[in-house]
Design brief:
The protein is largely without helices or strands. The protein is 8% helix and 0% strand. The protein contains one helix and no strands. The longest helix has 7 residues. The model has no long low-confidence stretch (mean pLDDT 81).
């Protein structure tokens, strides 16, 4: 954007902040702590005459997928499934 005669942007945004002002306003920390606590258990279950099958994912299962696809599959009986996903995104 072009500057006006007084040094402000013609778009009305004002002067750019200096490096020292930006350094004072910067947030965040260098310490990153991620923790997933999974503590499930299965007891006392029984399964009789159970037929389990194969788990398959077709080649087109993730076609047009966006983001972070996560798949959890179970082909058994009396199964405890616990899942945790931690995404740590740092923009620098």
């Amino acid at each position: 954007m072009p500057l006006t005669a007084d040094g402000t942007f013609a778009g009305g945004l004002g002067r750019a902040a200096g490096e020292s002002a930006l350094a004072q306003a910067r947030g965040g920390t260098d310490t990153i702590t991620n923790e997933a606590r999974l503590s499930g258990f299965v007891t006392g279950n029984s399964a009789s005459y159970v037929s389990t099958g194969a788990n398959t994912i077709d080649g087109a299962a993730f076609a047009n997928a966006s983001g972070i696809p996560i798949v959890i599959q179970n082909s058994g009986a009396n199964v405890l499934i616990q899942n945790a996903t931690i995404i740590n995104l740092q923009l620098r």
